[in-house]
Fold this protein.
Amino acid sequence: MFVFKFSQILKKGRRLAFVDYYSPSKWKSTLIKRPGKFVVPEEVKNAKKPYCMAIRRETINPWERRAPLAPKHVKWLTRSGVKVLVQPSNRRAYPMQRHKGVQFSRDYISAGAISSEDISEASLIMSVKTVPIEDLIPDKTYVFFSHTIKAQKDNMPLLDAVLQNNIRLIDYEKMVDEKGQRIVMFGRWAGYAGMIDILHGLGLRLLALGHNTPFLHIGLAHSYRDSHMAHNAVRDVGYEIALGCMPKSLGPLTFVFTGTGNVSQGAQEIFQSLPTEYVDVANLHKVAQYGSLNKVYGCVVSRADHLSRINGGGFDAEEYDAHPELYKSNFATEVAPYTSVLINGIYWAPKSPRLITLPDATVLMSTSMTSSKKVKTPGRPRLPHRLVAICDISADPGGSVEFMTECTTIDRPFCIYDANQHKSHDSFALPTGVLVCSIDNMPAQMPLESTEYFGDLLMDYIFEMLLSDATTPFEKFQASDAVTGAIIASNGKLTPKFAYISDLRRQKAMASYHKAGRSQSDLPEKSVLLLGAGFVSAPVVEYLSRAGHSTKLTVVTEKASDIEKLIQISPEVKIEIMNVFEEQNQLSNLIEDSDLVIR
């Protein structure tokens, strides 16, 4: 089997032959291959009684078919003398046991595991997702993604139960190297699945807007047996694009990838199965307007491309990591207006500037931001605005993409966000709005390969975890920084590194209390002065006039004709007709009486 790369297209009469193809091993090499032998600690080798660990059945989500370890990893462990218990589950992608007579089987029983509903014998219990409180076993070491490090409200009862049951909790998310980079993650497969899903959704959304495109031939990620099948499907769509099957009224399509980590890299591996050309941020606006329809354009946006100091100056990575509040982002004004599809894979902290705010979304989804300047006809409609779809793989509600306030799911992967109403809808047929896909367990759609990839990364630390005894003091546990630094709780209390969770939890509780105790009518009214009634004024007036904003808005304009337009948007708006260059004193008084001035 060969995978075609669209770097060269050779015309032969009416047919096109694609050359410069390469073996799948080029992208399969990204999978980590374990060595044939690895070091087994003396404590494990010489143990009188075999060390026992367990792989727990995933029960938190019906789509969760992954496991922390694949059968090949279990085989290495059992051959090293470790007793491995696996809770049976027909939902898991890797089966407990194959039917008799099946050769080359990859199942847990053949790997030496023991199928057991009762896993209380194990000192180490592993899973991918969180464990229901009622299933926690006291005095054990648990390893899973706990989603507690930001004091997430939904998982605080779980953290309380961990402390009450004297459980030592290790969180995969906090396993990092000396540079602070995560070392055990599903990120690349989140990128794979997210890119496949958004291409599928793009086809549906474009069809609803009146355009038949080859993207309709791509399914959701979970409909493919493995990534090879997905690559082939995307490549077939690439053939059609290269042959000129895209409607001209769409204009060039641009795909923007935020971040340069594993998520972005995985998404780009799928993207590169299409006929692609990469451009930098400086040239994005050119290809968005004058680019070819026989290819799609990619642009990777790093932090340095859109972040700068508020008080002037460029981007400094160390300073930004320490003080993100000192920086601003120009993504919404310099990148997003030329973006057809945004694939967002960046980590966002509360003090960091957002990529797209709510007011930004209103501007980006206005009818003036169309992708094509061609004359609109009933059968060849223009897009309502250039930004058509967003795949927020970071799945952080209210984060870098502010209007993404709720994650989608594998069985309901898409919604349409309407910036005018600030609402999300299930219908693809809305005349305006951006398609949003933000599934918080993307890799679960490709469970076989993501499990194997994750286990390959985890095997370097599995024996350290196996030697953890939750009944002994945390201070006496000797392991690498990658493991000890990921221990959130031990001996009935938070470890020193994560003691901040208690304070953060109290802060959130107090904020929630004050928010609940004060209605919007109790909030002091703020005065906002808007200078000018040009292109951006209407979205600003509409946003500030929504219910819940305690603002007194005054708009300064030279044109009396603007009055009717603004009054239709908000009858409460106050309008001052003046020439700001000739009536400086009156303008100064307005500015002095305002809490915020927008120009």
Remarks:
- The chain has a mean pLDDT of 86.
